[in-house]
Design goal:
Elements: H1 3-12, H2 14-18, H3 22-34, E1 39-42, E2 54-58, E3 61-64, H4 66-84, E4 92-95, H5 102-112, E5 116-117, H6 129-147, H7 156-173, E6 185-188, H8 195-203, E7 208-212, E8 223-226, H9 232-260
Parallel strand pairs: 4-5, 4-6, 6-7, 7-8
Antiparallel strand pairs: 1-3, 2-3
Helix pairs in contact: 4-9, 5-9, 6-7
Length: 261
């Protein structure tokens, strides 16, 4: 966001006026601005339900209301923290397959050991979880057999076939191979590219938190975060907040266990 828009936020922005401590939030709004969270799509692509989250239009491009984004995001992260701290098995499935999100999602998932999907969403991952789980079990056994040398008894051609199958299954299941139960929350880094995953979550009554740009319908998810979902810096900024929420939830779990002793 340029200096003009930042000045507008400081002086006349209704969203800031509604915040409990606007002065304290100005630095974080500027930080969000520098990360490009404000950048929407062209006005011609704006979804009608996203209009309340738009601050202004500059050169035909929608500028997202960062004061609202901050407030909504804080509520979304509180929800994530609350949901994940309820029980030892509570889990979040992280979905990000777009160029802007893939690497950031992979890094966060690896760091926090989160189930994740960064390639093509496999239909039925949630709605047909029983069958998917059986396929994952087969994949893990096949891989373990290869590592233990139990496939050495087969011909070279047969072993080549097993290797190819393992490669295909790795591509499909590597991010969710340790997801033994349905997740408690689905976090999607963008709506339109992950609509199948979101619809499956809704069918299974799994709450969805998602980044929503100005071209998408926020009503499709439970906690829509109005934000630029196609900029790497923007996505990374939001995922850093998600990381904090997850770590806080895990700390609460530990405290609950300690208090129960």
């Amino acid at each position: 966001m340029d200096d003009f828009l930042l000045d507008e936020l400081k002086t006349s922005h209704e969203g800031i006026a509604e915040l409990e401590a606007p002065a304290a939030n100005l630095p974080i709004l500027e930080e969000m601005s520098k990360a490009g969270l404000f950048l929407g799509h062209k006005k011609s692509k704006t979804h009608p339900r996203m209009k309340p989250y738009i601050f202004t239009t500059r050169n035909g491009t929608e500028i997202i209301d960062l004061a609202q984004t901050l407030e909504i995001m804080e509520k979304a992260m509180e929800f994530v923290k609350s949901k994940l701290s309820k029980s030892p098995t509570s889990a979040l499935l992280l979905v990000g397959t777009t160029p802007a999100s893939k690497t950031a999602v992979e890094n966060l998932a690896k760091k926090l050991n989160l189930p994740n999907v960064t390639g093509r969403w496999l239909g039925g991952t949630l709605t047909n979880f029983g069958t998917i789980s059986k396929r994952i079990a087969y994949f893990k056994k096949l891989r373990a057999d290869r590592e233990a040398g139990r496939l050495d008894k087969y011909t070279k051609k047969e072993r080549l076939g097993f290797n190819r199958e393992i490669e295909k299954l790795t591509e499909k299941f590597s991010g969710i191979e340790n997801m033994s139960v349905l997740p408690d929350v689905l976090f999607a880094v963008e709506v339109t590219s992950h609509i199948t995953a979101i619809r499956e979550a809704k069918r299974m009554k799994i709450p969805v938190v998602a980044l929503v740009n100005t071209d998408a319908d926020p009503a499709l998810v439970d906690y829509p975060i109005p934000v630029n979902d196609r900029g790497k810096a923007s996505v990374e900024w939001v995922l850093a907040k998600l990381e904090s929420a997850i770590l806080e939830a895990r700390l609460l779990k530990v405290e609950k266990v300690e208090n129960s002793k």
